[in-house]
Write a structure and sequence with these properties.
Elements lengths: L4 E5 L6 H4 L1 H12 L3 E5 L11 E5 L5 H9 L4 E4 L17 H13 L2 E4 L2 H9 L5 E3 L20 E5 L4 H6 L2 H11 L7 E5 L7 H10 L6 E2 L6 H10 L2 E4 L8 H9 L3 E3 L5 H5 L4 E2 L5 H13 L1 H18 L2 H15 L4
Parallel strand pairs: 1-2, 1-3, 3-4, 4-5, 5-6, 7-8, 7-10, 8-9, 10-11, 11-12
Helix pairs in contact: 2-14, 7-12, 10-13
């Protein structure tokens, strides 16, 4: 019997399907559910011979959506719109044509998926026709738990170094916070992981130099997946004082790894991590600094966050949870009983 063929589209490069967990997880889930998955990452790779189209991102997914509509095949579109995000990456800060594409996708796709409740509220406000939300999945076997006793004296933050990301992830505020306390914790370094080719890297370097942190801030550049996993398992604290997250994938990955985390009650972070992390005001370097110092010196609190974070991921964000929800979604599309 011929398998149902799904066109899985996410604009970018082909390697992203392996490098980005929320792509690779969904591809694995669809294949395990018995679908024939065709990967598409640019217009020329979109298949005209699929039974359904599973499309990441509202604006860049316009072409596969149009193809699905022309062929009268179901189109499931996925992404977050950041309606409540006040940063430059927020919905209302985007160009008019991007907002038009988003609204078009929400209206004409057959199912609209987000990855958190707050994002579901956003697409409903913008008129989504058939809105759903399914949380991202975390592979708890890949992100092995490492107790606080096995961790080293460094603080970790992982982010792209695009200017808009530097602003949304509050990397400058994080540097100011670290500059206030590094003499109190002289054995600690701050590791900032990101691509040195991004347009904000030179600006980030200039701020590090202004704060005399050149010897205290480590910038390893682009790292492999294995290196990332090792950093997650070894960091004393994971820091992400963000302005907004539609889910917070790195936060959830570090929860699975047992990293004690300092972040902020912004976007979906509170619904994902409440009770398992320390929350601070992302715009207040003093508060971020105080949080870092207090958590470094409070081993029991670090241990509590570490263990509770891992348990929360196991309970609510395992791949099997997302797999079941996606199965139910596709069964309804194809009228499987």
């Amino acid at each position: 019997m011929k398998k149902t063929k799904i066109c899985f589209h996410a604009r970018g490069i082909k390697d992203n399907f392996k490098l980005i967990d929320f792509y690779s997880n969904d591809i694995k889930i669809l294949e395990e559910l018995g679908y024939d998955v065709h990967l598409s990452w640019k217009t020329s790779t979109i298949s005209f011979n699929c039974d359904a189209y599973y499309i990441w991102w509202w604006s860049s997914g316009i072409i596969p959506l149009l193809i699905a509509k022309l062929r009268r095949k179901p189109a499931i579109m996925i992404g977050n719109i950041h309606l409540q995000d006040q940063s430059i990456q927020g919905y209302y800060s985007r160009p008019f044509y991007i907002r038009f594409f988003i609204k078009f996708s929400l209206k004409f796709s057959d199912v609209q998926l987000t990855t958190s409740k707050i994002e579901l509220e956003g697409i409903i406000k913008l008129g989504a026709k058939k809105p759903h939300f399914i949380y991202h999945a975390i592979d708890v076997n890949k992100y092995e738990f490492s107790p606080v006793e096995n961790r080293k004296n460094f603080l970790l933050c992982v982010s792209r170094f695009f200017m808009f990301n530097i602003k949304r992830k509050k990397l400058i505020e994080l540097l100011f916070a670290f500059s206030k306390i590094h003499t109190q914790i002289p054995d600690y370094q701050l590791v900032l992981v990101g691509n040195k080719d991004d347009d904000g890297f030179e600006y980030l370097m200039s701020e590090i130099k202004k704060l005399n942190l050149t010897d205290k801030v480590i910038l390893p550049g682009f790292i492999s997946e294995i290196e990332k996993l090792e950093l997650y398992k070894k960091c004393c604290l994971y820091l992400q004082p963000t302005e907004y997250e539609g889910f917070g994938m790195a936060i959830a990955e570090n929860m699975a790894s047992g990293s004690p985390i300092i972040t902020s009650k912004k976007g979906a972070v509170e619904e994902i991590a409440d009770g398992c992390v320390m929350f601070v005001d992302p715009n207040n370097p003093e508060e971020i600094a105080n949080g870092i110092i207090s958590l470094i010196y409070d081993v029991q609190l670090r241990k509590q966050f570490s263990e509770k974070g891992r348990l929360r991921i196991i309970k609510s964000f395992q791949i099997e949870n997302r797999k079941l929800a996606i199965k139910e979604l596709f069964d309804s599309l194809f009228n499987v009983k």
